[in-house]
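Students often ask why we bother predicting the structure of a whole assembly rather than each chain alone. The short answer is interfaces. A chain on its own may look different once its partners are present, and contacts between molecules only exist in the joint model. In this exercise we take two input lines together and write out one structure for the complete complex. Read the inputs first and try to guess which parts will touch.
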Amino acid sequence: MEIKELLLQIGKKAKQAARKLPTLSTREKNKVLRLVAQNLRSQKAYLQEENQKDLDLARKKGLSAALIDRLTLSDKVIEAMAQGLEEVAALPDPVGEVVKMWRRPNGLWVGRMRIPLGVIAMIYESRPNVTIDAAGLCFKSGNAVILRGGSEAINSNLALARIFQEALQESGGPTEAVQVIPTTDRAAVQEMLKLEEYIDLIIPRGGEGLIRFVTENARMPVLKHFKGVCHVYVDRLADLEMAKRICFNAKVQRPGVCNAMETMLVHEAVAESFLPDMCEDFRRAGVEIRGCPRTCALVPWAKQATEEDWDAEYLDLILAVRVVKNMDEALDHIARWGSNHTETIVTTDYQRALRFLREVDASVVITNASTRFNDGGQLGLGAEIGISTTKLHAYGPMALEELTTTKFIVFGEGQIRE
Amino acid sequence: MEIKELLLQIGKKAKQAARKLPTLSTREKNKVLRLVAQNLRSQKAYLQEENQKDLDLARKKGLSAALIDRLTLSDKVIEAMAQGLEEVAALPDPVGEVVKMWRRPNGLWVGRMRIPLGVIAMIYESRPNVTIDAAGLCFKSGNAVILRGGSEAINSNLALARIFQEALQESGGPTEAVQVIPTTDRAAVQEMLKLEEYIDLIIPRGGEGLIRFVTENARMPVLKHFKGVCHVYVDRLADLEMAKRICFNAKVQRPGVCNAMETMLVHEAVAESFLPDMCEDFRRAGVEIRGCPRTCALVPWAKQATEEDWDAEYLDLILAVRVVKNMDEALDHIARWGSNHTETIVTTDYQRALRFLREVDASVVITNASTRFNDGGQLGLGAEIGISTTKLHAYGPMALEELTTTKFIVFGEGQIRE
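Now the answer. The structure tokens for the assembled complex follow.
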């Protein structure tokens, strides 16, 4: 009952703040963002003190060195957060943009104006810098945000939110535009998912389990991606040197992320000239290969792939490889096993490139470049709050524009309907 | 179990059809739409025979004359459906449009291309013409559609779907792009709401009860509006003659629809000069007035409004009226009681007009024109499949563009990520 009431209050305050945010000018919002950046730097000692509480607890609990590293608010991480906010301040403000305007035969002017979504909730794990990154993007796009980070980062997250709120207060903005849920109680998440009257959108970021739990229990819309099973299809007419560079980059440059390649599809006409060489590069980089029978015939040290490998998001130095008869078989494989995340073709053939771009159903479809480019920053959105692999509202990396919608505005001069 | 299997099969077939639809050219799609229009006309006798079965049953069940009228496929209704399809054929095809394209510093070209959503399900009541209207819009925008109309129209709906499917077959398109659920069993709806693997979007159209049921039970996104509690605010600086024309039109021209005015807000400075005259017009048109105390003082025959009246969607010749102290009070009233549907201000003041357009949170915000213009056709979208009052994906009337999303397409020349 206490938790329920706490969440209800947080929801109500967020909704009140959300009514005020659209009235702030771009200049006022940017001023707040720059002030938060400044205060992150000047209050580094306070932040690191609060962060130390989380780190002490994490060590006591025996968390892995990798997790502790992700949890740490080092000087570098704090500076990166501050710079991130300054970059968001420099981005164009989507709110108030009239994306289109036209005139009707009766003289009415009709336009579509960008407006914030309202209240956005984020659920995420470990890294406390997400608190600032997400708060910055939501605030710039005129949305109030409710943040629920990992329980192991609770002190750090509360300290970061406090710095944001102090800057809001100093600037006369609504301090409750940014709120961190002040408890690690798991019941808080369940209560939050019921607040459909106060929360317009939930964005979960983390493992598949968290995302499924949110999707199944939330009463409000959810923007999410379950996983990234990304393919590179090396066509019969590929530039094989280019294919090697792209596939190597897609798998090895950062294997633990959702836009890394997990399955490589190779046209049978080039399998013999491409696969042994390519896999030798992979072997040297420590990549384990799980191949179809034809792959294993060409790469004797490869393991046999099972059907589960076509579905796997390894997030590791493991790669599934399949030789396909033709482009249709590659497209069928992608349609069957792909996760609508990122798909690449390598080909020198004009028509196949266009066909791939048109027919493949993924949030980002690429010709002749690495899958690793599915990222808001890399594609030129200036930032990223997550990647959506469902088609409603947003498909692909989401930044400021994706945190808005449009309303119709109509300028009349007394028109009535006949 | 049988129903469950039936729905699963329908979902699978729709998904298969949805994979083929994006590959049809605009010309091919328009040919199908025109052929359906032609066949509706040439198979009028068959349609009216099937419709007669529904009408006989409706009479036997004692349905009201109004409901029987809505159920009837008269010559006029059939011609209107045919013409509607020809109009949709003439509209621009959203699919394949690249809404934006830009170049990155590394030479990558990045674009956003419109694509269909996939499979859309519609649940609606009585009027069988919705079957053709919805199927036409979904097909043109490249989506497969699953239709569930009112049980009293089942024979008419199946006959209409058959005509659409025959045209698809004749043209070589996927016949399962348009399916009507061939049973009136209520369990079919519940099974449909569980098919999140096969259905990308559900659009319920009908009473608030139906829409709430769908929202609470659907596992996939729902586009809906619960109700339209639309206001006209007559400002202190309104042209009162214009205000009279607009308010009369908004209430009386067609009171049974969601964009009719339900509450009129009047600035106190003009209440005395405006309200008695205006209400006299309403009285003559048979409109019942439910007013705040100050309204009742000026219009002695008005009934006293209770708080429930501010929340009411009458859909009838009844109007709630409230005198407000100033524009802030009007904005607060709209924020508190509005349904995010349609809101109008009548004013000659430039700044108040702009402030209203900016600050009011509704899918269509209007200055100096009737609320009745919130309609896809009236606003120039060429058509309408429904009106959304929730902000995710679409806000306001929805037509072809709103039945699509965008994916990112990337043209590379061997780029990899450093």
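Check your guess against this: The first helix of chain A runs from residue 2 to 20.
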